Amino acid sequence: MSSRKALPDIVRGKSRVHGDGVFAGEAITKNTRIIDYAGELIRNSESEEREDRYFAEGCIWVFRVNRVWSRDANFGGNIARFINHSCTPNCYFEIVDKTIWIRAARNIRRGEELTYDYKTIGERSIPCRCRPGCPNQL
What we know:
By secondary structure, the chain is mainly beta. It is built from one helix and ten strands.
């Protein structure tokens, strides 16, 4: 029997932040790995056209891994692609090699929506919708 703990239970549902979101199906303790952000591994030079198309639809599916690689969650992605942006998040991301882990920034209650700061910059930034009157709504 493996001594590795399974990842916490999370579920997709309607979000107050934007569209669909991801919610804790159980209490999650601080720094716990919640899920990896899955998707097709592509070169950044390939991702530009895809990013433009997704951004025009109001979505950000491409996650930059490093200066060379990105993950496109629209192809081979998982539920992590529905975790919404917030400038006051309860999660953060950690990149290990080419794997993007979403981790708990603090203890998270069962039923609470998971969010992290996308850290987007430039013309592909989206307005923050984390709360009414957010100063980062652009």
